[in-house]
Amino acid sequence: MAALEEGFTLSAVPLGAGPHGLLGVEQSDRPDQFLVTDGGRTVILYKVSDQKPLGSWSVKQGQVITCPAVCNFQTGEYIVVHDNKVSFKTFYIIIYTTNQMLIILGISGRWNAFLTSVFSFKVLRIWSNEDVNLDKVFKATLSAEVYRIHSIQGTEPLVLFKEGAVRGLEALLAEPQQKIETVISDEEVIKWTKFFMVFRHPVLIFITEKHRNYFAYVQMFNSCTLSKYTLLLGHEEKSVIQRFTASVDRKVISLMSLSSDGCIYKSLIPIHPNDPEKNQRVVRSLLLKTVVSGNVRNGIALTVLDQDHIAVLGPPLPASKECVSIWNTKFQTLQTSKELPQGTSGQLWYYGENLFMLHGKFLTVIPYKCEVSSLAGALGKLKHSQDPGTQTVPHFVNWETSRGYGFGSQNSEQSKRILRRRKIEVSVQPPPSKQLLSTIKKDSEKRIVEELCKFLASKQTPDFHTIIGDIVLELLGRHKVEPSFYPRNALMQLIRTHVLSYSLCPGLMEVALEKTDVQMLQLCLQQFPDIPESVTCACLKIFLSISDDSLQEAEINMESVSDYIDSVQEEKMEEQTEILHNGFNPEEENCDNCDRELNKKPQDTAEETTSCPVIPKRAALLNAILHSAYSEMFLLPHLKDIPAQHVTLFLQYLYFLYLKCSENATMTLPGLHPPTLNQICICSELNKIEVSFRELQKLNQEKNNRELYSIEVLELF
Asked: Which residues cross the membrane (predicted)?
């Protein structure tokens, strides 16, 4: 049973008006006091029981606090990080040339803003309750940007940098300008982080995102090990993870994520991995279904309250108002909820038995109570007095499908009979996965697909991704023994479960390459996060060499090209199509037209609309290559295996994409999943040396009186 009590406003002044909203609410060294960091310049210390501020500190005008202030529980001092931008009204660059000439350039306008951003430093401040002016307290200028400072009871504060490196506060203060290493890869961005104590040892977890792929990093400080995990999506498709929360026990971190489909998913991450050096994978399983409206992108949050309860912020239905609710994760029931008519910022914190959130523009505290989880409490059968403004709602999931027990409207005797009958059925029937594996060994593909559909429709177990991998290996094993057996439809269904990876079934893409199955290769490139560069190049070689006729017959996903390729084809058709009346074109009477066509100069064609050098289906396949993850160092050795004419075609397509990007002010392509400019920047690099090539060509034309043999040295500046 859980209940939300009457809330109260903690701050009398509006908060969260800055560009970053409310940065955070953190526990002070006293249980009833909390540090509130506004997204602008201010840190306020509040005492909740008195509902009043005890102190307030602000950075100077022009400076911005970049992460929540925290309390150092070992010293009772407060810590915050802000930027320290240098403002340039007029900035001069002094250049000494080789002939000792002095050149002075004055810079202003938009360059002023650029230089201000370049000369921006990250400053760490430490102060106590007695300090009044933050400008006069201890400061340390850091060499890298800070993502978050973590501080909990029992250990020193930790500083997490935006590139993934972590430092203890004392080690950082001993050498503030020390070089900070880069832990995460390029374009990888930290989305969420949390700090725990496990057996008196600090453990840090942070989640990163890159191209809608999510990774979990777990840092153990007692053994100085950093483990990386790839979060594999389950059966949900095209859902974007929006919020995270986590709890920890002795061996496992329970990571919960709220996705754009409105559901909460759970991933179990081991604290002590078997192989810390290896990038391991964890799969998400459904925990709670549709806790908020799937159409909402802002104003949602979640946080774990205890072992069996979770608090969720957001509207439960598309047309409903925002509310805060408490769910029982053990019995999957909604326990209580309270409407927030003035809206929220999508931020939620909890300490002790208090929930903190922005209600409108004011920081609000809502006390709550969660009792030990029991079935009677989950069903709302316990007798408790509750606030009239809250609703205790026994919101049920379908126990018949999600738990396998006969609760609901049936009476006790009916439930017992159903349970007895199910026990008999379970004891007789083998597990669905074993039954499917047995079918794969002997039956036809049609029969296998039927059994596979039944298996995928059944309840997913925590080892679902491992079972899917075993099924793929069994199918590939039979194909190896019987080359005529190619269960393409079954393999495509298994790839679409979103739980496979290259390392889980390396033979799958080899078979697709052998069969020149471009549709399967495209799907693998879109789904697998760990494809080796050699396999990526093999796919590129096939995509460039396969004939247009073969591609026309293949079923290719055209999402990445549907917008900009179609528009180019339409423009081309409009230019080539002329209106004919009864098969007669009046312009053909004029012979001068024919002369003009014959005498048309080659450079005139360059002014026409740029056409795509490949057909749309080939373009979609090449986009899959551009979207895939790779390392240039490992990719380059394999590119030499691609014939020159195919490399030229690929460069022509990249150049076409670059020109299409250049048509927009945003330098982006239209469509659902088009390539980004970063994925085709190679052409912009080639453009930089175009001038040099032109100069070489000019020199070639000028020197016509060469002898039979000569050696020339050309200097490029």
From this structure: none
Q: What is the pLDDT of residue 14?
A: 75
The pLDDT value given to residue 579:
38
Q: How far is CA 179 from CA 158, 167, 182, 300, in A?
A: 16, 11, 10, 37
CB-based contacts of 28, cutoff 8 Å, min separation 6: 34, 35, 45, 71
Pair of tokens at residue 459:
């309840």
The first and second tokens of residue 526, run together, are 């879109």
Secondary structure in 3-state letters for 675-710:
CCHHHHCHHHHHHHCHHHHHHHHHHHHHCCCCCCCC
Exposed/middle/buried for residue 240 (C-beta within 10 Å: 0-12, 13-18, 19+): exposed
Q: What are the 10-residue block averages of pLDDT along the chain, 717 residues in total?
A: 88 68 89 88 91 90 90 94 62 42 43 45 91 91 94 93 94 93 93 89 93 90 85 68 87 90 88 76 86 78 92 82 89 88 89 90 91 58 44 39 35 42 43 78 86 80 78 91 90 88 86 93 88 90 92 87 56 42 42 42 43 90 86 76 88 84 65 66 56 63 60 61
Whole-number pLDDT of residue 319: 66
The candidate with the shortest Cα–Cα distance to 439, out of 453, 427, 425, is 453
pLDDT score of 411:
43
**Beta bridge partners of residue 257, listed in sequence order:** 244, 265
CB 525 within 8 A of CB 630: no
Check if the beta carbon of residue 522 is closer than 8 Å to that of residue 624. Answer: yes
Q: How many other CB atoms are found less than 10 A from the CB of residue 455?
A: 19
Look up residue 211 and give its amino acid.
H
Contact 555, 518 (CB under 8 A): no
The DSSP bridge partners found for residue 195 are 204
**Inter-residue contact 258 to 243 (CB < 8 Å):** yes
Q: Output the six-digit token pair for 572.
A: 């081309």
Contacts of 434-438 spanning 24+ positions with Cβ under 8 A: 436/471, 437/470, 437/471, 437/474
Can you spell out the DSSP letters for 509-566?
HHHHHHTT-HHHHHHHHHH-S---HHHHHHHHHHHHHS-HHHHHHS----TTTTTHHH
Q: What pLDDT was estimated at residue 528?
A: 86
Name the helix (H) or strand (E) containing 109.
Answer: none
Instruction: Please state the φ and ψ torsions of residue 72, each to the nearest 5 degrees.
Output: -85, 105
The answer to whether 314 and 298 are in contact (CB under 8 A) is no
522-560 as b/e: b if 16+ CB within 10 A: bbbbbbbbebbbebbbbbbbbbbebeeeebeeeebbbeb
- In a 3-state reduction of DSSP, which class is residue 493? helix
